[in-house]
Amino acid sequence: MPARLALLLLPLALLTACASSGAVKQLDKDRYQVSYNAGMKPMTWVEIKNVARQQAENHCASMGLQYARPEVTSNKATGLLPKEAIITFSCDEPKAVPPKKG
């Protein structure tokens, strides 16, 4: 009986162990949102937020723009609960690089 129960629970355990990234959603004219859920992966909050931030930066770069004005939130999970970071951000025109002197 315990082996049968373990076989039934295995797919559920595998699904919850998977990390997932949300697609970038456009909230309004110039605000976007992306999320990253670490599932049961043993990641720190810094790592989770960095994955979401990288997705946001890549989204802006794909449009030839620069990542700007991020607002980072999380589900504040602790222990073995899945951790999720959510970043709301804008994409601005790239800042001009001043010419080098010399």
UniProtKB/TrEMBL annotation:
Signal peptide start-end: 1-19
The domain of life is Bacteria
Q: Which PROSITE patterns match?
A: PROKAR_LIPOPROTEIN
Keyword vocabulary terms for this entry: Signal
Protein name per its UniProtKB record = Lipoprotein
The record lists the organism as: Bordetella genomosp. 1
Q: What is the lineage of its organism?
A: Bacteria, Pseudomonadati, Pseudomonadota, Betaproteobacteria, Burkholderiales
